[in-house]
Amino acid sequence: MTAIIPAPLRRRRTRRIATAGVSLALSAALLSACAPGTDSASGGAAAADTIVVGSTISIRALNPLDMQYQTAQYNAFESLVRIIGGSDPEPGLATEWNRVDDTTWDFTIREGVTFHDGTPLTVDDVVFSFTEILEESFVTASVLTGIDAVTALDDATVRITTKGPDALLLNAVGQVSIVPKALYEQLGPDGFAAAPVGTGPYRIGEFDLNTGVMFHAYEGYWGEAPKTPNIDLRYFSDPTSLASALESGQVDVAHQLGIQAIKTVGTNPNFVLTNEFGGSQNMMQFNSVSGPFADERVREAANAAINIDELIEALTYGAGQKEDGQLPLEVINGYTDTIARPAYDPEKAKRLLAEAGAEGAQIKLAGLSMYKSLLEAVGAQLAEVGFAPTVETLEIAVWSQQLREGSSADIFYKGLGYVGMYDADRPFSQLARGSAPMVADPAWDALYQATRTELDEDERRKKIAEASEYVHDKDFVLWTYSSPSIGATTTSISGMDFTSGLMVLFDDAVKTS
């Protein structure tokens, strides 16, 4: 029973997706550097040796074992398996992998890989990186809960055993950055974060967590060299200041702009703006355990009340992507075209409310304060058919606690992102999450468990479709839309892909002067 993947001759580029987020850091006000370089493929124009990238996504520390979905992590560090976007798993620091049986996987470690300090990659580094994350309960430990043990079989092979059949093991493995064991143990987590060393195409140079990070191409990289030698990544406190920096020439690239940029930056001929799906989904869930939405007819009424076209036009200038009545979006593994979104039908919504005796039902919509506009717009549409909604906005610490433990809200904004897990499991795992879940349904629990343990890909997709149909029929979710990932560059930049959401990859980017 095997799944062997050969090593490629060069790193392959694929569609990139990740989650959205917010930065609290201040920006530096430096000017971009542009120096002569080699001729590029675009008409022989000189390529700059530095690109300045502005981003509203900052970091709190540079310890890759305690990071997820960060630009620094994906450019300076690598995992055994590379999963970027909706692609199949590709070789990273492992050249191939073999599923020995339902709970045993062997990974062959790539030869000739060195860390940025010149030390060679070994199986001990791989084993250490996994065990350190699990033992210290770092952030990535949440996706490694199915792993029972990580051991070295020999100088070239690492074995991972799982507690049971795990259809998502490769996705989890793809989120573990590998660090040098000896250096990490010598410096400790804080010391290593102050002088991080990885195996990626870029090494980390000077940095200030409040302002940004310099990246320099690693000359000893095992794969294809980055096209631009230096990347100056700068942090901005909000999308408005980032847009101003782009327009004034302080940055060449703007990563994670606000929706308003569609109407401002997007209409300026000096810039190229993209607003594609970036892995962020506005998942809003009903409390089907208690309150008005414990009645399935009331949940159905709420979905019939949503005029999605109106929401998308008003809140995203038409750039949002409709949720199709199922949790996996069209670009996510497990999506099926057999499920249709509930139709907008306000008269049906009123009729169902009357049948359920829920006319004038007082409901609370709660979510992060940054999504206040969406919550209020949804509340307004629900009010039009007879609900009596109020909106509660939460600070991130309160929201995070309620996401983990449960909320008393009738509709709770959960949101989710897909980076590392471009799979229906990401939203499925949210439905009955926490000590006070918003779904308490044994039939759903069985359907979900079956999607996690089925190792045959075709059979698993059938099980996902069955689970999606159940969610659709039960109206566990209020269907809205996914937000676009908005980025922009000057017209001199090529090769920058903003479908990565929270993080952006640099190795294809070129600036011509």
How would you characterize this protein structure?
The structure is a single chain. With 513 residues, the chain is of the alpha+beta class. It has 2 domains: 50-275 and 486-511, Periplasmic binding protein-like II (D-Maltodextrin-Binding Protein, domain 2), CATH 3.40.190.10; 283-479, Roll (Dipeptide-binding Protein, domain 3). The chain is built from 13 helices and 22 strands. It has helices spanning 71-76, 123-136, 169-173, 181-194, 239-247, 296-304, 308-316, 346-356, 372-384, 396-405, 425-431, 442-453, 457-474, and strands at residues 50-55, 81-82, 90-91, 94-101, 104-109, 147-154, 157-162, 202-208, 212-217, 230-235, 253-255, 271-281, 284-286, 321-322, 362-368, 388-394, 411-413, 416-417, 477-478, 481-490, 493-494, 510-511. The strands form 5 sheets. Strands 1, 8, 9, 10, 11, 12, 14, 18 and 20 form a 9-stranded mixed sheet that branches. The chain has a 5-stranded mixed sheet with strand order 16-15-17-13-19. A 4-stranded antiparallel sheet has the order 4-5-7-6, covered by helices on one side. Helix 9 links the parallel strand 15 (362-368) and strand 16. The protein is globular, with a radius of gyration of 24 Å. Residues 1-43 have low confidence and may be disordered.
